[in-house]
Amino acid sequence: MAKVFGILTAIVLALSAFIAFKNKAQYETQALDVQARKESLTASQTRLKAIEAELAASPAERAGVEAEVEKLTAEEAVEKKTNDEINAKIDAATAKIASNKEQLAGIREKTSKTGDLKESASKLRVDNAELEELDRSIAASEAKLANLTSEKSSSEAQVNEAKGKFESFSSGQSLPSLKTRIRSIYPNWGFVTLASGNNAGVIANSTLNVVRDGNTVAKLLVTAVESNSSSASIVPDSMAQDAALMVGDRVVPGLKASKSASN
After folding, report:
1. Contacts of 42 (CB under 8 A, 6+ apart)
2. Nearest CA to 111 among 132, 135, 134, 131?
3. Half-sphere exposure for 43 (CA within 13 Å, toward CB)
């Protein structure tokens, strides 16, 4: 009887141990599931805060962009007017040079037909004086034309630069000339700060590429811009495999992101 009781007791203990093991495994599975849900919630809260910050900053950024567009439009108009004035001066100077050269050719033709130099000495002195004056006038006009041509080139370069800025602001893309670097990284929040701002051509809501060794390792979406600094979110799923962002990574303009990529 005692032996049977012992066997029953062992069976009961074994069943208890098995049930305890199953309960422990189920508890660990539930604990892992709870942890995963917490991490997912944290990530969602982070993205929500970033979106809220972006929405809060959008009106001010839009006003800044509109003001900059108006400024660039005015600058372009001024530069165009200056360019037109320079073109008019160049045309006038070119006409003056042509007229002087025509007069010079006429005088040379007259002097080539002069007969006895002794009898025509007085006339030759006058003609030579006119030749020297015309030579000086032509040299001065050509120098003025060269200066006007230089001013025109400078003016056209400024107009083209203003047009480039205007087009970039209008399209929501950072300036093609932008070259900056990552200043700091906040991996838990999914964003970085950059060492340049709108003074260097960073435009809010534009997409930037993080470049290392000639390859794009990640994409950024600009969320806030100041004069000499800016911040940008790391575009989800844009990181290259086995790559991690580093302070000092080079950042250049990229293609404009679609709305779906920024949500």
Report:
1. none
2. 131
3. 8
* Count of Cβ atoms closer than 10 Å to residue 97 Cβ: 18
- Residue 115's Cβ-side half-sphere holds a number of Cα atoms within 13 Å equal to 1
What amino acid is encoded at 169 in this protein? Answer: F
User: Rounded distance, CA 94 to CA 100, Å?
Assistant: 10
The fold for domain 173-262 equals Thrombin, subunit H (2.40.10)
Domain ranges in the chain are 68-171, 173-262
Burial of 113 (0-12, 13-18, 19+ CB in 10 A): exposed
Contact between residue 194 and residue 183 where contact means Cβ atoms under 8 Å apart: yes
- What's the pTM? 0.41
Dihedral (Cα; 165, 173, 58, 163), 10-degree rounding:
20
φ, ψ for residue 28, nearest 5 deg? -65, -40
Q: Mind listing the pLDDT tens digit for each residue in 42-78?
A: 777 777 777 766 666 666 666 766 777 777 788 778 8
